[in-house]
Write a structure and sequence with these properties.
50% of the residues lie in helices and 8% in strands. The chain has a 6-stranded parallel β-sheet with strand order 3-2-4-1-5-6, sandwiched between helices.
């Protein structure tokens, strides 16, 4: 089964409660919770609060490591097979919709990443912003029409495939869906105003105190371990604002307000993404609510 929904909706809490009751194990589907050391800004469930329930695909990457939806799908499918093979219930929880789609529906086969080519493409984009999208428009117009010019990561991948194979991105029909499982997707649909209130409070708690146990301290520790701040995870919500604060580009209050605003926008995008999937069974409320737990318990038992 999978638990989806916007950030802050209580996916982790619901996953823990259902895993405890239905002999489940939790499989991460949050692209940032894969990374070691990124705990506070990703709202990762602390080990001490996991109730002894096995958690998979957490803390498996260093910040400088690249990763793709295809790599996630391959690893997550292996974990699902292992968990279910031991008679346990795999519970996939997280808000990275593209990763979940890759796991359930598969992705078309494509070549592995080419780090050297990616560096050259990134350098070109840095010298001439939007130039990669213009190049993609010439080489693969259909892909360019589907990918926004600001989504540099997807533009680079489309160009990488085109250059390495001489062909356009493979059609989605070439993907191989997850076989041998009946997948139940539960979607959390909390009240929007209450969600935003909770998200704002969570962001405020993350940034304070400014050092030590807060997000600022977490980023300082990552930098002290050798991170430069240019790694992909530092482009995410909270981390980029913390870097700006440490570099003097923002005040603390500006960093907090910026993170709160962008977190609202991210939650909206997640709602939109998951609502496009007609297979999701929506429950109205937060995952930490006893009423929602009871409703989901009945869905699972039925």
């Amino acid at each position: 089964m999978a638990i989806v929904g916007p950030t802050g909706s209580g996916k982790s809490a619901l996953a823990l409660n259902l895993a405890e009751e239905f002999h489940g194990e939790i499989i991460n589907c949050d692209s940032l919770q894969l990374y070691r050391g990124l705990d506070i800004g990703t709202a990762k469930t602390p080990v001490a609060e996991r109730r002894g329930i096995p958690h998979h695909l957490f803390d498996v990457l260093d910040p400088e490591q690249g990763y793709s939806a295809g790599e996630y799908a391959r690893q997550a499918r292996d974990v699902v097979a292992d968990v279910s093979g031991r008679g346990r219930l795999p519970i996939v929880a997280g808000g990275t919709g593209f990763y979940l789609r890759a796991l359930i529906d598969g992705l078309p086969p494509s070549p592995a990443r080419d780090p050297g080519l990616r560096r050259r493409l990134a350098a070109r984009e840095e010298r001439r912003p939007r130039s990669l999208h213009r190049l993609l428009t010439r080489l693969d117009p259909s892909a360019a029409a589907r990918i926004h010019a600001r989504d540099v990561q997807k533009v680079v991948r489309a160009l990488e495939v085109r250059i390495l194979t001489g062909r356009a991105l493979p059609p989605t029909g070439a993907a191989r869906p997850l076989a041998g499982y009946s997948v139940l997707q539960l979607g959390l649909d909390p009240d929007r105003s209450e969600l935003y209130r909770r998200l704002d409070a969570r962001v405020l708690a993350m940034f304070r105190p400014e050092s030590g146990t807060g997000l600022i301290g977490e980023v300082q520790r990552l930098l002290a371990r050798g991170c430069t701040g240019a790694e992909k995870p530092f482009e995410s919500l909270g981390y980029k604002q913390a870097l700006d604060y440490l570099g003097g580009a923002r005040t603390l209050e500006e960093a907090i307000v910026s993170t709160q605003t962008e977190t609202h926008q991210y939650a909206k995008r997640q709602w939109t993404w998951f609502r496009r999937d007609a297979r999701v069974i929506w429950v109205r409320g937060f995952g930490d609510s006893p009423e929602i737990l009871d409703q989901c318990r009945r869905i699972l038992a039925g």
